[in-house]
Amino acid sequence: MKKQLIACLLLVASSWLSQSVFAQGQGVSINKIIAKIDNYYVLRSDLEESYHSYVAQNQTPPAKCQLLESLVINKMMLAKAEIDSVVVDEKQVDSQLDTRMSYMIQQFGSEKNIVEAYGKSLEMLKSELRQQVKDQLIVQKMQQKITSDVKVTPREVKKFFDGIPKDSLPYMPAEVEVGQIVRFAKATKEQKEVLRKRLLDIKKLVEEGRDFAALAKEYSEDVGSGQQGGDLGFAKRGAMVAPFEAAALKLKPNEMSDVVESEFGFHLIQLLEIRGAEYHARHILLRPDYNRLDITEPTRFLDSLKHQIEIDSIKFEKAAKDFSEDKSTADAGGLLRNPETNGSRLAMDASMEYALFHLLDTLKVGKISAPIPYRTEDGKSAMRILYFKSKSNPHTADYKLDFEKLQNIVLTNKKNRAIDDWFRKSVSDVYITVDPEYNDCRVFGTSQSSAAGGSASSGGND
């Protein structure tokens, strides 16, 4: 049971990697290495930041020993990934980093506010966060590798459900299915002209002899590639958005494009090399101010689309697939997904976004809302209409009604057991020591975590 708990905590611990660079760290004692896993370390500040991340989110933190075990497991995943040559695509890292930075800018209001809050340059914060994002993705990839063959059958789900005493069946909150169609706010003509002029000015600087890479580091708002001088590496045809790729492939090596507009903003592109079906380009990206975009056109469009759906000229699901600009939900007919179950049923309780909860409380099942403002996870301004597809009332857990949720519980349990087995088999492949200060934690069931073949040693100062 203990190992299953640790494995379960691992799923939570991976999120700490993306948060710790921005943790305030107030009240944290002088840094000290408290665990070593091959060439990876757990610092006392890591443990404190993990603890305070729960407090900051108004959640009850697990015991610090459990947090330490989770951090050790994460580092063990990284150590084993290095041994097994498990790597992640740098473009995926850049994409995740862009999303995290956009979210932080949204939360703090501006890049300047972030710098003032943490006393570090934005470049330093991005650099620290980038490695943590990369580590998180590697951990996730290791988890997927370990559990890729784990499946569950309806018979296993039924056996699990039947094994719960009838008087102990949980009481399930009301659940809803909600669809959305999203249209992004558009840059005004004036905003577009400002961005085009800025990029043309930058292009002129390059033509006068300034270094493209240096200018990309200075001006590009593509956080990931900007640090690399705008370098996007080699890309296969079809990997980039169509306007970018079409413009890039018209160029000769070392030639620059005119200003190119895409869904991500405005680009100045320089082609570096073509190699078979791949091409190597770099760019400088400027984005419009998402807080000052024009919502007139998306509001008008959605209002008209709402009317077409209501008079049955088009079904909501098809309208979402054809017209929604939110790619994560469009292919599913606009249905919002539950991140815990990956299903379409959302608990209508305190865990739901407040604005969504409030709207559904006033909207009837089967109805579509008027266009309402919406801010995406990466900070983009948009408008959306919501379709209240279905609602189930609060009830005692039922096998048929709650099959999706029960199936996810059984699958999670089996994955945890698979991870347990992996740890038992892999612990001898890495060298693990824990500072004597944490002897009582009995990481991996030993008083000094010497299961990997070495005695525990006291961590030195960082």
Automatic annotation (TrEMBL):
What GO annotations for molecular function exist for this entry? Answer: peptidyl-prolyl cis-trans isomerase activity
Where would I find the PpiC domain in this sequence?
A: 173-273, 276-387
Secretion signal span: 1-23
Q: Which domain of life is it from?
A: Bacteria
- Read off the InterPro entries from this record: OMP_Chaperone_SurA, PPIase_dom_sf, PPIase_PpiC, PPIase_PpiC_CS, Trigger_fact/SurA_dom_sf
Instruction: Kindly name one Pfam family recorded for this protein.
Output: Rotamase_3
Name of the molecule in the record: Peptidylprolyl isomerase
Keyword annotations of the record: Isomerase, Rotamase, Signal
Annotated organism of origin: Arsenicibacter rosenii
